[in-house]
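quick one: glutamine bound model?
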Amino acid sequence: MPAIAGRLNHFTESVIREMTRVANQHRAINLSQGFPDFDPPAELVAAAQRALEGQYHQYAITWGAPRFRQALARKQTYWMGLDLDPDAHLVVTCGSTEAMMVAMMTVCNSGDRVIVFSPFYENYGADTILSGAEPIYVPLHPPTFEFDPDQLRRAFEQGVKALVLCNPSNPTGKVFTLGELQYIAALAKEFDTFVITDEVYEHIVYAPHRHTYMASLPGMFERTLSCSSLSKTYSITGWRLGYVIAAAEVIAGARKVHDFLTVGAAAPLQEAAVTALNFPLSYYEQIQAEYTQRRDVFLSYLDKARLRYTPPQGAYYVLVDISDFDTEDDTAFCMWLAKEIGLVAVPGSSFFAEPIRHLIRFHFAKCQETLVAAGELLLKIKAQA
Ligand code: GLN
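yep, here:
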């Protein structure tokens, strides 16, 4: 039998998604793969039902249905403070997962170097390898997850094509400060580098922290590919609607990659999602308030259980320190947690390039009932370990 491609030896299947299978196997509460267990807004589901009755069964325009692009450009013009042209500055993709891959393949030649902060959402490692690039990891140091400015400069000095920025960050919950973003932007300009952002948690930020779009900083629009999706903002991770926003010249390239990768995102769902993109500003205030409450419930249980963690500033993940437990191995700890306690987390090592084994990731995009049930299980951990 002939051998399959060698590049596939350089990464594994997703550990996050594997932990969902572990949760199903043990009928445990799944706080690993980040997706909600509550419904999306009812108006959005009704819009999807209407769309299926309409004439949306064939391919939409490959880079996005016009009504969806117009609504998205209007919404993001407001939030990003940029004057976005729906016909020039965006391409609609199958989730941010495709958006990131498209972005990487649009800017990278084979052998190019790409800076990735570590810990990082596991897709970025695979994205760089599949696009023929080579990742250079720059640590975000726990527990505050700040980067060392000199270390970042030294990474740029190695000659890089792009930097990947997940902000608000999965898995750390870090929201990069304006000062940090300005420092990264200055290096990107000095070394003539692209920035590829993953901003899927743009609307999940806890006061007093604020999200700043990299593309909104002076001189950064022309070198930033802003990737995001509707998955987290509207609780529709299964709809697979994402996008890349960038300068017209970059989007011209991104459209080609996207066209040959997937042709397009689901036409009826693009039509339905126009309803979500037109929600009033109060919708975004409401989800901030709801996520703040979910975070507070979950963190209060971590406090009660006397578990140490870095309080998330944004997104819906928390990294919990397990060094008080008698374990050298976060994966073994997570398997024990699933089997003996009935709770599933992701081993932190799957996010770090460095050999860090003392952290595990929980997510809290769950309804009150699930969070309380999970919290009660957390209270048992120290006694049973
Ligand atoms: N972004 C989510 C997480 O980090 C979901 C990952 C996935 O399976 N696409 O858990």
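The first strand starts at residue 29 and ends at 30.
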